[in-house]
Amino acid sequence: MQTIGIIAAMTQESAAVLRMIKHWERSRVGPFQSRCFRVNERDCQMLTSGMGVERAAQATQMLVEASHPVLLVSVGVAGAVHADLAIGDVVAAGNACRLDQGKLGPFQPLARLSEAARNAVEQVLQPRRAHLFLGTAISTRGAQFTPEKGQELPNPVLEMETMGIARVAAQHGIPLLSLRAISDGPGAPIPFDLAAMMDEEYNLRTGKLIRALLGNPRLLPPLVRMGENTRLAAGNAAAALIAALIPPGEVVG
Questions:
Q1: pLDDT in tens, 121-158
Q2: How far apart (Å, rounded) are the C-alpha atoms in residues 191 and 75?
Q3: Which residues pair with 132 in a beta bridge?
Q4: Residue 129 CB coordination number (10 Å)
Q5: Cβ–Cβ < 8 Å for 237, 180
Q6: Domains of the chain, with CATH numbers?
Q7: Running DSSP on this structure, what letter comes out for residue 251?
Q8: 33: helix, strand or coil
Q9: Which residues pair with residue 252 across a beta bridge?
Q10: Of 49, 57, 176, 199, which residue is least crowded by CB atoms under 10 Å?
Q11: Measuring CA to CA, which residue among 171, 111, 161, 110 is closest to residue 138?
């Protein structure tokens, strides 16, 4: 049976997927949590990588060596660059690139949803009052901006892992699908400098965040809102993933 490999950065993102699965098995692949389950007779293995391009690349390499997937999926949340993407909307990225020190790197094409999978995703998002868009995944270290030329990209979203997964996928000749739901954007920005709150290993410095909150209690309401938006986005990304796996035939076109 051919396996679909799934990479989610945060536990909140992988947990949203598992809530939609009746039965799954717990294991580990190296240092990473692994969950195995089936969707529409498809074997799936999902790893929770932790945040950042390098962790995502390491998790993907170990997943490829362990299960030899025929398709990889980067799933989770992302930040919108433009205000026309609403919280909860899902972006299927047709291309990915790296944003480093304000400069966009080379673009790498990604797999696109087949027509059947795209229709299934659109249908599952409709009652959630969300929409599916084709866009561009920009992997960065928590920055909430893009250079001027990035403003003309189709529906660009900022996240922190897809290019790490894409690097390994390209090395092994495995198609990569990216499904990211919007958790923040111009209308609901992250209320702090995300990069400044992370260490070199891309771990959130909880103590520093608490000190910032104590120093500025006005951060609490937007932090609560950010948590609610992230939960909604993680749920929509998970729903999109499961819907994409349901149609018979190919998941990607």
A1: 999 999 999 999 999 999 987 655 555 556 678 999 99
A2: 23
A3: 90
A4: 10
A5: yes
A6: 3-188+233-245 (3.40.50.1580)
A7: S
A8: strand
A9: 113
A10: 199
A11: 161
**What are the percentages of helix, strand and coil residues in the chain, rounded to 5?**
40, 30, 30
Can you read off the two tokens belonging to residue 99? 């944003």
- Output the pTM of the full model: 0.89
Question: What pLDDT shows up at residue 22?
Answer: 87
Cα gap 229→182, rounded to integer Å: 8
Helix H segments across the chain? 11-18, 53-67, 115-125, 162-172, 206-215, 220-245
Q: How far apart are CA 99 and CA 79, in angstroms?
A: 14
Beta bridge partners of 7: 47, 74
The pair of structure tokens assigned to 118 is 């795209």
Question: In this predicted model, what pLDDT tens digit does every residue of 58-79 receive, in sequence order?
Answer: 999 999 999 999 999 999 999 9
Q: Report the C-alpha gap between 201 and 199 in whole angstroms.
A: 5
**Cβ neighbours of residue 148 closer than 8 Å, sequence gap 6 or more:** none
Residue 28's H or E segment, with its range, is strand 24-29
